[in-house]
Write a structure and sequence with these properties.
Layout lengths: L7 E8 L3 E10 L2 E11 L5 H14 L7 E6 L10 E2 L2 H9 L8 H14 L5 E5 L9 H4 L16 H11 L6 E7 L3 E7 L2 E5 L20 H11 L3 H10 L2 H6 L5 H7 L4 H25 L4 E5 H6 L1 H8 L13 E4 L4 H16 L3
Parallel strand pairs: 1-4, 4-6, 7-10, 10-11
Antiparallel strand pairs: 1-2, 2-3, 5-6, 7-8, 8-9
Helix pairs in contact: 1-3, 5-13, 9-10, 10-12
């Protein structure tokens, strides 16, 4: 039996559409030391070779073998909102939620299966991005369509939000808006460390305009596209998830770095950035209203962490909320979803051992 206070090595897997991130941590209760990480490019259907290459890279760094493996899973569906030891039932629930995150969930399942082969007999733990939002008030999770369909607000990027709350602690204040801004982007309204509203809904497509995702769009416009342009459901999904957002408005790319480089000479690139910033700004205002005020504004995610110019552009016009006046604290937190996954995985393993 595992000694409850003994540090254990945990590997975390974060499987994206084109790459696999593997990180290793030595986890003691309430503390995780990074031992190394590796990101491996992969083509479709090639997750097992990518995992083998990533593990070889960690081995070359002298990282010891794991006692458990943790997985970031985008969608937990209605039932999986706690970190859970993966068994047949948990895997089935993750697979059932694939219809709500078809670009994300299949790679998570492939990572789970590949890790089961690579680490036969080791415990694997699923940590879902939707879990942070599990306690949303009824009014926040309800969408204004007839009930009984199972359609509701779930929210995403929860592991990133959880990390930001953990890092800032009391500095977060009572009322905070956290902005996870990367190729995928969302905001969360947090009161006393608990999420009370968020921008993404049933799927990771809604809310803010993103790199290639449309965010919220008039449903009538989508019906129009289906009726007048002959889009079927798959075509519409491809349009709003892979061809819209920054890419759709600019007509060229969803990469914010490339758009910023082209901004001074390309009117469509400039429009895409301006619309993106305005969308974030408007949603900050909306979530501030949901909180009844704001004590801190937090930026995280790749764009949120690295672009001071875009942070400043977003904050322009928010002075009436106290942003930029000194009344509202503005924080930048480097996202570390892997560490949160490792923390949860170690806790589940210790609980299995009799904690």
């Amino acid at each position: 039996m595992l000694a409850l206070t003994k540090p254990i090595v945990v590997y975390t897997l974060n499987a994206g559409s084109s790459s696999l991130k593997v990180a290793a941590f030595r986890c003691a209760p309430h503390d995780e030391d990074s031992l190394g990480e590796h990101e491996q490019d992969m083509s479709a259907g090639q997750l097992s070779p990518a995992l083998d290459a990533a593990l070889e890279a960690l081995h070359s760094l002298g990282v010891e073998a794991p006692a458990a493996v943790g997985h970031r899973v985008v969608h937990g569906g209605p039932d999986r909102w706690r970190p859970a030891l993966i068994d047949d039932g948990v895997r089935a629930d993750i697979e059932a939620a694939s219809v709500l995150a078809p670009r994300h969930q299949p790679t998570s399942l492939a990572a789970i299966d590949a890790a089961a082969n690579a680490f036969a007999g080791l415990p694997q733990v699923a940590c879902c991005d939707t879990a942070f939002h599990h306690g949303l008030p009824l009014v926040a999770r309800t969408l204004p369509i007839p009930g009984g369909s199972g359609v509701r607000r779930y929210g995403f990027h929860g592991l990133s939000y959880e990390w930001a709350v953990s890092v800032l602690g009391d500095a977060l204040g009572e009322r905070a808006v956290i902005a996870h801004l990367g190729s995928g982007a969302s905001l969360a309204a947090v009161r006393n460390g608990q999420c009370v509203d968020t921008t993404m809904g049933l799927t990771p497509i809604g809310g803010l305009m993103m790199s290639t995702r449309s965010g919220d769009v008039d449903p009538g416009a989508l019906v129009h596209l289906m009726r007048e342009h002959g889009l079927d459901p798959d075509g519409l999904e491809r349009l709003v998830e892979a061809e819209s957002g920054l890419r759709g408005v600019s007509g060229s790319t969803g990469d914010m770095r490339e758009l910023r480089e082209a901004r001074s000479t390309d009117a469509r690139a400039a429009l895409a950035i301006e619309l993106w910033c305005m969308t974030v700004r408007k949603h900050i205002g909306a979530l501030t209203a949901a909180l009844g005020g704001i004590d801190s504004l937090v930026f995280t995610g790749g764009i949120g962490e690295r672009s001071g110019a875009l942070r400043a552009e977003i904050c322009e016009g928010l002075e009436h909320l106290g942003v930029g006046t000194g009344r509202v604290a503005v924080h930048v937190v480097e996202s570390d979803e892997n560490r949160i996954v490792a923390r949860h995985t170690a806790a589940v393993v210790r609980q299995m051992s009799g904690a």
